[in-house]
Amino acid sequence: MKKQSGFTLIELVVAMAVLGLIMGAMVHLFGSSVTSLHVGARQEVVYEEARLLMNELKTTLRYADSINPQNPDDKTTILSYSGTMWNRHMDIGAADADNISYDITVEWLDAGGGLKQLKVIRTDKTKNGSKRTKEIHFPNDSANSLFKGDSAFPITSESIKLKDGNSVIMYKIALPVQYEFNGQMKTQTLETKVVPSKDEVTETPEEKMRREYMEILNIGLKLDKSEAFTQKERDIYDKLCSYWGITNNGKYSWQFGSNTRIRAYIYEKIYQNLDPSISLDGVNGYFSPACFDFSSGNNVVIIHAKNPKWSDNWNTNYIYNSDDKKWRHLISDKGVTLNTDQFAPDKKPSWEDVKSVITGTGWEIVQEVKH
User: Between 20 and 30 A from 228 (CA), which of 24, 44, 62, 218?
Assistant: First the structure.
């Protein structure tokens, strides 16, 4: 009788067991791959959030010309700053390319559960006078936040001494991120540092003079409020005391509220008595700073003057708009000059008041400017 070939029951059981082990390993390997893929995707999203915000803060701080507080530390709760930057860096010839003014506010946002998020609000001021605002929360998902109730503010500052003896303020940005890896939460901090480019050649001569004047006014305001100086402010204060012949006692002096005294220092010590001349549409003269409302260091106006040492001999028909870096000219009887009853007798016009006049009816942009 011929013997039949085939598998025994034991052989089948062993084969199925081996196949089960192989399939189980493959399922586990596939599952781990999918999990790693998802973890990697989540990690990439968190990193992208931090990278985009880091770039936003670094770029806008780079071109900031007004920062409050100027020296944020780990106890700061809100930081605001303003600046101007070119809105089409890679397309200079674009029709809508222009210097865009912006305002940034960075502050804490209560995310609940003892956690905080960072809220960043940016407002751009476009060429036609309209405003465009966007708001960013970091991290976007509050559950991913590493900011707790006692977390240090992510933007801090330090004073750096340069080789020429001057000091600059450097801002450090630190954004912590967390993600899951192999079932465990990992943390990492993205960091960068930036120094605002206030003294670059992109700063117009008028803006340079306005900044120098504002620095002096802000020193006076700090003295009035008994606030601490930066090293740069301390150096300027020492020079002012020496020039004005006042005692360096850290107290407010009336010279900080005098256009004549501040201009005298700027012209003699900063410009070495070389009066900055300018021609506006063929009208020759000088540009000169003034402040009507000394309650804020921002209230500085640059005016076209017939005489750089003017007192009352000045021309209000040409005023510089520091927001768009353009001169405005009064060309119509319908326009309003600064020495009219536009402002109440008891009200000293701020920069915003002045700007509302020169951007109104009867004022036009000067087409030809020669320094």
Answer: 62
Structure tokens at 258: 């005098």
**pTM of the entire predicted model:** 0.48
Distance CA 345, CA 124 (A): 34
The third-level CATH classification (topology) of the domain covering 205-370 is: TcpA-like pilin (3.30.1690)
Comparing C-alpha atoms, which of 253, 251, 252, 275 is closest to residue 263?
Answer: 275
Provide the pairing of β-strand 283-291 with 300-305.
antiparallel
Domain range list for the chain: 41-57+67-88+95-194, 205-370
Q: Which residues in the chain belong to E strands, given as ranges?
A: 64-68, 78-86, 99-112, 115-125, 131-138, 147-148, 155-161, 167-181, 184-194, 277-280, 283-291, 300-305, 318-321, 326-330, 363-365, 369-370
| CA distance linking residue 49 with residue 294, whole number of Å | 41
Q: Are 96 and 124 in contact (CB under 8 A)?
A: no
User: What kind and span of H or E run contains 235?
Assistant: helix 231-244
The model's pLDDT over 282-291, given as tens digits with 9 standing for 90+, comes to 888 889 898 9
Q: 99 forms bridges with which residues in the sheet?
A: 86
